[in-house]
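hey so i finally got around to running the thing on that chain from the lab meeting. sorry it took forever, my laptop kept dying and i had to restart like 3 times. anyway pasting the input first so we r on the same page abt which one it is
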Amino acid sequence: MPQSLRRDRVVLFRLTQEEYRLLQDACTAAGSRSVSEFTRTELLSNIRGEGLVPSRKPLFEIERKLDEVLQLIQGEAGNSR
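ok and heres what got predicted. didnt touch it at all, straight out
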């Protein structure tokens, strides 16, 4: 591997048993050679906006808006009593 492409940086993070099981399952489903390869590929693809897993930002925004609507409805229901 050329010097410029050497992977000489390490990123560490901890997972629960359940999170690791999900990661292993995703790795197997994707046909990756290793958990490290899968994690690196998915993380970098996601950062570049190319990931297989769609961004959760639009979903988060929808959830936030639904919470606002629910609060408004509950507030109006409380006011009409």
